[in-house]
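tool_call: predict_structure(chain=1)
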Amino acid sequence: MGRALRWGLTVLVAGFWLWYASYYTTIAVWELRKLFAWFALPLLAGALCLAVALAVRLLRRRADRTGGGAGPVLAWLGGLGALVLAVGWLMYGAYLQDRAYMATAQIVTEPVPGLSARSPYVVGKAQAAPHLGDVTGEIADITYLPDSDRFGALVERRGWLAGYEVGLVQEVPLGGSGRSQERCPFDVEKADARIGGWFGHNLGRKISAERRWVRFDADDAYVTCRSGTPVVVVPLKRQTGLLVVTERPAGVALYDGRTGELTVTSDTTAVPGPSYPLSLAARQREGTAAVGGFSDWWFERSGWDASEDGANEGNESEFTLRYADTSGGSAYVTPLTPQGDAGSVVAVSTVPTRHRGGTLAPMTVHRLSPSWSSPKALVALIKAEYRDVCCYNDDQVFEVVPTGGSTWTATIGSEQNIRYRVEGRGPVDGREATCLKAADGALIRCAHAAPGSPEEQELQRREQQKQQDAAKGGGDTGDLTRLTDEQLAELQRRLGDEFVRRLKSG
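tool_result:
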C-alpha cells in the first residue's frame, strides 16, 4: 500500500510539474508532433514488419518440413516493404506539406496592385542607432510598420535577467525632409521580460502561461509606441494536422512595456502593424514548389524561388509594402524567379499583412508580362545608364522591389540619405525601360521610356514646353536660380555629355 502511494504521489507531482511548466511542454509537444508526422508511417511499417516476423515464426513452428521455407521469404519481404514505405513517406510527406501551404494560393495573370515605395530596410536599420541617444542596450529587431510608414526598433537591455530598454519608432522618408521619431522607454522594474530571456524574464514563458500550445518566431515580433507606452507585438502560430503537420495563425500577444501586462487576443483589428506572421507568409511562398505534381516537385521543375542576388541579397523576400490606393492595406511582397539557374523575375507573390481567423491568409502569385531581369543585372544596368548619379563615395543601389503592375523600384544613395530612385517596367522594345527620379518621385530623365507610359508623356510635355519657350525667346538659362532641380540636373547631364564628346574628338 505504501509503495503504491509513493508511486501515485510521484506521478501526480510529475504531472503537475509538466502542466505547470507550460513553456517547456509546449515546445516538447510541438517538436514531438513534427517528429510523429515524419515517422508515424515508418514506425507503423516497423510494427508491421515485426508482426510479420512473429507470424512467420509461429507458422514455422506449426508447419511441416515442406512448408517451412516460406518463413524467411515473408520476413525479407516484410522488411523490404517497411524500408520502402519509410523512405517513400519521408519524401512524399514533405511534398504533401508544401501542398497544404498552397491551399489558399492563386496564380493569376493580372498585374500586381499598385504599391508604394518605401525606404530600404538597411537604411532604417542604419538610422536607428544615431537616434537612440544614451541608450546602452543593443538593437534586437527592426521592422517596417506600414500603417504609419515608419520603422520600429526594439532595444534589449544588457544583462541576463533583463528585458527591453526602449522602443524607437522613427520616420525614414523616401524623399522629403520629415524625420520625426518617438522614443518610448520600458519600465525595467515592471516590464522585465523579453524574447529569449532567462527564467521568469522570458516573454515566451509568459505567453505559454497565458495560452498553451501556441508558439512564435522571434523575427516576427516588433515594437510600437502607443501614447508614449511601448507595446511589443508578437504574432502567434498554432499547429494543425496529424500526418501532415502545418502551422496556422493564432492571434497576437501584446506586451505592455510600462505595466508588464500581457494580453493574448484573436482580435487583431486594433494592432498597429502586421498581425499575420511574416514567417508563415514566407513558408507559404516556399510551398509554391509544389504547384505541380510530385515528380515536378522532386526534380524541382515547378514553382518559384526568391531572387537571391544583387541588391536584395540578405533581404530578398517578404518586403512589407503599402498599397498605393487609399484602402490602407499592405502586403508581404516577394519577387520570384523560376527554380534553377534562371535569373529573370517572372512572378510576384503577395500575402496580406493582416488576416482574420485561424486559417492561412490568401496568397496570390502574379505572373509578370514582361518579366524583369534579375536584381543583380538591374543593378549593373543602373550603374551603366546613370553613371552621373551612381555610385560614388558611399552611395549604392539598395533594394529592388515590386511596386505594382510589372514595375520595380530601386533606391540610390547612402544609408543616411536616399537621393534618387530608378523605376523600371521590364524589357520594352528589346531593352529595359528605366527612368531616373528624385527621391520624392519627381522625374529627372529616362534612359528608355516605355511607349505610352506616364514618364514618356511627361518628357514629351517638357519637350513641347521647351520648344514653346524657345519660340518665345524664353530659352535664356543665364539665371540658374530660376531652374528647377530637374532642369538643373538635365543641364548638368548635357554639360557632362558635351565634355565627353569634345574629349573624344581631340
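agent: The radius of gyration is 30 Å. Proceeding to next step.
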